[in-house]
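User: Fold this; tokens only.

Assistant: Input:
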Amino acid sequence: MDCLRRGYRTMHTVGGPGTELGRLIPDWLAKQSDGCKCSDRAAQMDAWGVAGCIENREKIIGWLVAQKQALPAMLQLLPAKALRAGAAVMVDCAIHNAKIKADQ
């Protein structure tokens, strides 16, 4: 998968898949709020590394879909299947970007 060709950005610092996922989510799409576990989950993903995130891919996608209320109102109307598909692309790109950086 070429996430750069899809228009997703990468940066040149290493952090891990959780850090990469955070970079892929634009500010207008979802804002971190009180009580959300975004930072904790990003840290968990970074601790798992690429292999652990591949193993826990469905769990990570579930975390993102569960944060539906943080999306703009129009996107909250999307069916769960569409939200899962979008979340899956972002998770896969984050894992891919982290793998590339780890290999450099």
